[in-house]
Design goal:
Blueprint (H helix, E strand, L loop, with lengths): L5 H28 L14 E10 L9 H21 L2 H6 L1 H9 L5 E11 L3 E10 L1 H10 L4 E2 L6 E5 L9 H18 L4 E2 L5 H6 L2 H6 L2 H11 L3 E13 L5 E13 L2 E14 L2 H28 E2 L5 E9 L4 H12 L8 E5 L3 E9 L2 H11 L2 E4 L6 E5 L32
Parallel strand pairs: 5-6, 5-7, 11-15
Antiparallel strand pairs: 1-3, 2-3, 4-10, 7-8, 8-9, 11-13, 12-13, 14-15
Helix pairs in contact: 6-10
């Protein structure tokens, strides 16, 4: 065998020694170039209250309590007040006013975690943004002990559409803008997430206010695919002014809100308010805060009543297998009906394929009640095996339309070979 020269042998030896390092670097570069998989988004908890903004004067610190602690205490009280709006309808909160006032005096014992997102001290004030998580166990036990029915299901994500036609008076476009801001502020306190459409070309071809007004299910399905929204709010607003005794103006604001949710009939809410002031524009801005509060409170009350957990009933946890065969519209409707069942929490996806999805669901009541409710939602419901909590739910089969046959069919027509005579009918 022919031997390498000394310089060549040195190069070969260096290459062999450097090869493992080169391979490690190359593999490291390849792994780094691979995009990281996004982490699965955790399902929202109704007991989590985010971004509570507080502002208090420096003089708010009492005794040995520092200004920071005073701000956190104020945020805890405000956050618990917001949480109670999500758990209890307005009539129940009014009925239990004294008991809830005592609960709000010491919110700290119910707080599980406090995170200060931002804090800034000005010359005479402190502003803070705080997020809190309340103890589900402590608060639910307190409500159950008092015999209060409450809701633990967060309201679904909402796509907000606005009617932009101009009208007389202050003008609908201005009124819609004021109402949109007011709705966002009030909805946040009730734990609702409102999204505004992007307004791109794709959206213009799939989404319209008129379609939402008609309750078009295709629009709701498209909004769910693009925005993960299972509800659409279509709003229309109007504000008019009239002079009263010279400089004072009387402003009347009205709003119509059409609510569409998957599997639930469309609801039509109409609210109007009047207010007097020196400026019609200023009065209408304040007025839409009242209008938005009425609208959101009515929607929240209905949602809580639909999903309230009744005290004294046992909770059930089962796995539910839905065979949907990639029929997205039927799957969306089924989930909407499932969410609307009283005592039903938000279903969690355990496994999903193109043919079927397995959900983990928790509800309050008996399994017989759930079986009866599922039987109304899907005609083919069965328990997979004895003692196993996987229930099979199949969508209704597509109706088969037999071909229409004429009673006196015309004689069959046959092609005439080339070169032959006749009309072609035999």
């Amino acid at each position: 065998m022919k031997k390498f020269s000394k310089p060549c042998g040195v190069l070969v030896g260096w290459f062999l020694r450097a090869l493992p390092l080169w391979l490690i670097c190359a593999l490291g570069t390849a792994w780094a170039a691979e995009p990281a998989k996004p982490a699965e988004k955790k399902a929202p908890s109704i007991y989590e209250v985010l971004n509570v903004d507080v502002s208090l004067p420096v003089a708010a610190a009492k005794g040995g309590e520092g200004l920071h602690d005073a701000g956190v205490a104020q945020a805890q009280k405000e956050a618990l007040s917001r949480l109670l709006r999500r758990l209890l309808p307005s009539a129940e909160r009014e009925k239990r006013k004294e008991w809830l006032a005592a609960l709000l005096k010491d919110p700290k014992r119910l707080v599980e975690r406090t995170v200060v997102r931002g804090e800034k001290q000005h010359q005479d004030r402190l502003t803070m943004s705080v997020s809190l998580v309340f103890s589900k166990k402590e608060l639910s036990e307190a409500l159950v002990k008092e015999g209060i029915s409450f809701n633990e299901t967060p309201y679904p994500v909402v796509l907000l559409l606005a009617k932009e036609d101009s009208l007389s008076g202050v003008g609908e476009q201005s009124a819609v803008g004021q109402l949109r801001v007011a709705l966002a502020n009030v909805a946040r306190d009730y734990g609702m997430t409102l999204l505004l459409p992007l307004g791109d070309l794709e959206e213009l071809s799939h989404l319209s206010w008129e379609g939402a007004e008609r309750g078009d299910p295709a629009q709701l399905e498209w909004a769910n695919t693009r925005y993960a929204a299972t509800a659409i709010w279509a709003i229309r607003a109007d504000a008019t002014t009239a002079s009263v005794k010279g400089a004072t103006e009387k402003t009347r604001a009205s709003a119509t809100l059409l609510v569409n949710r998957a599997g639930v009939a469309q609801a039509n809410w109409q609210v109007s308010e009047e207010k007097s002031g020196k400026s019609g524009e200023t009065a209408s801005a304040a007025l839409y805060g009242q209008v938005a509060d009425k609208l959101v409170r009515q929607i929240a009350d209905r949602w809580i009543q639909e999903h309230a957990l009744r005290t004294g009933e046992a909770r059930q946890q089962i796995r539910l297998r839905l065979v949907h065969n990639a029929q997205l519209a039927q799957q969306t409707k089924f989930l909407g009906d499932l969410r609307a069942l009283p005592g039903m929490r938000e279903p969690q996806v355990l496994k999903s394929t193109a043919r079927e999805t397995v959900y983990a669901i928790e509800f309050q009541g008996s399994q017989e009640q759930l079986r009866e409710a599922l039987g109304k939602m899907a005609p083919h419901v069965e328990q997979a095996q004895e003692g196993i909590d996987v229930w099979l739910t199949q969508p209704p089969p597509q109706p088969h339309t037999p071909p229409v046959q004429e009673q006196n069919p015309p004689p069959e027509r046959q092609e005439v070979p080339a070169g032959s005579s006749g009309s072609g009918w035999l």
